Amino acid sequence: MEIFAHRGSSGTHPENTLAAFKEAARLPIQGVELDVHLSKDGEIVVIHDETIDRTSNGSGPVKEMTLEELKRYDYGSWFAQDFAGETIPTLEEVFQVYVNTNHLINIELKSDVYAYEALEEKVVALIGQYGFEERVIISSFNHGAIRKIKQLQPELVTAALFMETLVEPLNYLRVVPTDGLHLYKPSAKGDFVKELIEENVPVRIFTVNKENELEALKAIGIQAIFTDYPEKMLPYSK
Ligand code: G3P
Ligand code: MG
Asked: Do 177 and 147 contact (CB within 8 A), yes or no?
């Protein structure tokens, strides 16, 4: 099973911080997942929510603060005092962590609530700057964003995110178009998943934190999972 650290090693470290990414970078796993938004001044920042309220000591929407304003807050203390002083990372700062590793980097474009101006172009440009074209998977619940990535750079690997079960998944893959699907754990039990596996379509499942869940997914032929506890899942890593 391919193991991806969800928001970095987010079960043991504050999610989407350099501490969480450095922890994941030292593990012999397949990859890491992270979420991106744009700041008011157009910088790509790594954070899950549209606001900084849940994961920092500040409050307000990411899109209404400049990078300098976003960096004033503490993104570690809410998780544990040991992580006090963690800041919000830019996507480039996270890329720096992985320059000398072999991990895949799954960049989730969080543009399904707010349509961030030119987010796709900016992400594609940074990938080019780092030569990470073969090391990224770009995913989103905003399938229009995935379509745009494929228009900008068709060779980049993408995946459409879904919470729901699907009908005619192979047709949908062609319509977007996209390379794979990232599915919410309960939908992995659906018959449509078998159809995808038979056609060797990459299917990755989020978020899997229990060994018995991983084993059940492995039994049906799922190739990858996202987990908050990548170290715990190391025995299953291929
Ligand atoms: O990309 C997989 C997973 O991260 C999608 O859900 O809400 O954790 O970003 P979420
Ligand atoms: Mg995510």
From this structure: yes
- Beta strands 44-46 and 31-38 are antiparallel
pLDDT band for position 189 (cuts 50, 70, 90): confident
Tally of domains in the chain? 1
Q: Is the CB of 23 under 6 A from ligand 1?
A: no
pLDDT in tens, 151-170: 999 999 999 999 999 999 99
Q: Which ligand is nearest to the CA of 50?
A: 1
Quick check: helix, strand or coil at residue 32?
Answer: strand
Range of the domain at 196: 2-237
Instruction: Name the pTM for this structure.
Output: 0.98
Q: Give catalytic residue positions.
A: 6, 48
Distance 183 CA to ligand 1 centre (A): 9
Cβ proximity of 186 and 205 under 8 Å = no
Q: What angle do CA 178, 183, 185 make, to 5 degrees?
A: 170
- Domain CATH code at residue 180: 3.20.20.190
At 128 the pLDDT is 98
Amino acid at 219: A
User: Among 183, 172, 180, which Cα is nearest to 156's?
Assistant: 180
pLDDT for 32-75, tens place per residue? 999 999 999 999 999 999 999 999 999 999 999 999 999 999 99
